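Sanity check

After download, print the first record. It should look like this:
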Amino acid sequence: MLRGLARTALHASLVALLATATLMLVAGCGGGTTASQASRDGSATSTTTRTSARSTVAGPVSRIAVVVLENKEYDQVIGRPGAPYLNALARQSAVASNYFGITHPSLPNYLALTGGSTFGLSGSDCGNCSVSHRNLVDQLEAAGISWKVYAEGMPSACSAVTATGDYVRRHNPFLYYADVWDDPRRCQNDVPATALDHDLAAHALPRFVWLVPNLCHDMHSCDTYTGDLYLRSVLPRLIAQLGPTGVLFITFDEGSSDQGCCGVAKGGRIATVVAGPGARAGARSMTPYDHYSLLRTIEDLLGLPRLGGAASASTRPMTDLLRVRPVR
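Expected structure tokens:
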């Protein structure tokens, strides 16, 4: 009987010890707001979860590439079977889970991404209008950074056509800037996407790359799966040549809703994936971001001044999704 009492006492002591340890563990780990709590109550403005164990690496970024897709809300893409490649890439990359387009329709979002403003063109998809303002190309060239736009279906470099086949000018924002469109030298850097195969084969990509898929491949006029097949055919080769600290940003111009954030954005909640060696694999951020955040992140990574909305105090850089450090 004494042995039974001893065993009972020992068991009770072990249970108490384990309970104490569990409470200490919960207290140590539960001090912050979880991403799921943040998304429910809106109390957290910056929550990053599932981050990679790999440490931050020193810059500068070796190469930046941007792909802009069309007209899908976040929940129409992330977790959906119609985009198997993009979702597989997202699982091994970083995701901005609280990212918003600026406005509707397409063109002003593209201008926000490249010039820091919609330049009064909110609500417009004009084909022949132009903008005489400082833009990302001006910044890149002032800093001596090579750049190129690869536009699928565009008939020739810097083509004047507003639409042909599945190509539309309104998805190629650099041609809206007068100091690009009117400069024959700069025009040689806005080329048909057929040049991408040559540059990849020659390992001759510039340091800044912008891809313009056609209306079918950007998911505007075709289903998500068709666009996903395009991404599968292009992105693995592109990612392989980003260099040791390179970053690929995949985003959408706008969603179908008017959801927004950050004081100015109201173009819908959209999926944005950050991939490549410079991305923080596994990171999921609930920080509110918009297109000005992406522009600011590009500028900070390359050590460029911030344009327009990218310089706003309400615009946050997407550094929680990056391993590579910004220059500024």
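If your output differs, re-run the checksum step. Summary of this record's structure: Residues 1-46 have pLDDT under 50 and may be disordered.
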